[in-house]
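We read letters as residues; the integers encode the fold. Take this protein.
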Amino acid sequence: MSAQEPVSHVDTAWLRMDRPCNLMQIVGVMLFDGALDIGRLKQTIRVHMLAHDRFRQLARPHGTGYRWVEDRDFDLDHHLRRAVLPGDAGKAALQAFVADLAAVPLNPHRPLWEMHLVDTSLGGQALIVRIHHAIADGIALVGVLLSMMDNTAEGGQGEEAPPLPAASAMEDADDAHWFDKVWAPVGQALVTSAGLTARLWGGYLGFLMQPMKALDYLGTGCDVTAELARLAAMPDDSPTRFKGEPGSVKRVAWSEPIALPEVKAVGKVLGVSVNDMLLSAAAGALREYLAAKGDATDGVELRALVPVNLRAPGDARLGNRFGLVALELPVGVENPLARLYAVRERMDALKHSYQAPVSLGILGAFGMLPKLVQTQVFDLLANKATAVMTNVPGPQQALYLAGAKLRQPLFWVPQSGKIGMGVSILSYDGKVQIGLITDKRLVPDPDAIVGRFTRAFEQLLLLVLMEPWDTLADAAAVERRLSALVAQSGR
């Protein structure tokens, strides 16, 4: 890599998408048991994060695009800060602090990332991470953050930090070892979770480095024109209080973790994936929230844009290499079993869809368009959705950072256009949780949604405990039996 490097077309598109109501930054919150060793944390950042040039570079306008330029005045203390929460420093105060940060642009005169280490009354410290999407997608950034983690509190980060590597060091043997150790298992889990078919995944590898080749490849295997036409002609989803003109004030909330083995066990009985279970629970929580507000729910369909990993195995570089699929959440279906089976059917259809690589090609094309045209075209597509939703399977063993145990991680990707809701489902260490980031104008109380997520799952758990398993495939029959029982009990 030279001292100055052109920003790719895809990453240029992300740089241009910032607007006051929706900033293109990935926001993460990591809750720890106990306190982090600040000196050890800085050493870990130097060794693992700053080995990547992007975290030491500025994005500077150049012609019609941008160039990555080394920040000659880089100072880690500009990016890692201590913060004090007001009041009792509890969960509400932490959520408010995260929401405030999510609405503040990153300093364009410094590399586009920062961390805030805060003391809480929740039994330990929290580390809030903000990174601009132009640096990398969430999948790559999770890989970077995982590379900072240890398997024990003692860890192995005590050695002296090596000098910052040259730009070409990203391709050396150490990075290959880092990929094999940390990223490969995570990447494979994400690919499996996304359900990419072998045909789609294999075909994608040939044009990974050149997103526009996606269209050339797809032209040989499917009707790309029809796929693009479907995206362009996609009707708006149902009008709800979740849609509207967003403001610049955000709200953040997350649930308490639930046991992942329970989710897996219920899913096995019902013949659905963990992914299906969690997405259905999210749809149920959104439905209950609308109903509690007195809104109509019958027939409501909410469209969520879901990022899909399109990285080749072994690709540990930063940058953006993902596509998007549009998932219709059956919020209007009251019967929890019917809702679950509808999610399964729709996810099965998306697993064989070419939406993800086509959308990556479109994003690369957007980065070559004038900014005004890019904004208008992207808004047209983004505004057909209500939310951006991620579902990431994290490591299933406890991890440590700078001597402190990671208790609960949460991450949100940005919302574009007028989308006012981000939904994050993340599993870690045998537990799973949901996190929401919303616009205050549209959803001022996201805690009222995340509180219903667990209840939506418990509805399915209760059905598995109450009903004969061989009858659960017929959601309508189960509903009739339960209705009859309710009627009898009321006599």
The longest helix spans residues 173-194. The first strand starts at residue 4 and ends at 6.
